[in-house]
Amino acid sequence: MSDDIPPIDGDLPAQDGAEAPAMPSRRRALMLGAAGATAIVSIRPALAQSAASVLTCEIPVPDPARSGSYIAADGTLVPAGTPGAFPPARVPFKGEDVRKAMAGGRLPGMDSDRTRAYLQYIRRLQSGTSGFTCFASLQMPRG
Hints:
Layout: H1 26-56, E1 58-59, E2 70-71, E3 77-78, E4 93-94, H2 95-102, H3 112-123, H4 132-139
Antiparallel strand pairs: 1-4, 2-3
Helix pairs in contact: 1-2
């Protein structure tokens, strides 16, 4: 032990067969505090990275397995050429574009009817469908 730091009860080893004190030593508390600070420093960049990936993730409409289907006004998939239905989007939508459209905007290059139909499709996405993870991450609150 260093001569310049006076010992605290928890820093001293037990003597005469007595049990060690229940309180952690000052040294142990400092080590735990340092470990906690390291965890905070490493988690913040991960959260920032995940927030950025939410904005750049993509949602195809419809997913590639159903790319020949059209999108009805209620968001369901219908056979190609169904009257009143919309053809598939040519490119996937970025998460940021979907987030803005859900807040009342429009999807890039789409009129309001097509935006509504595509958003209905996106809201119906289920686990295992391309774009679901991106859409689910848009639903998570950001802090």
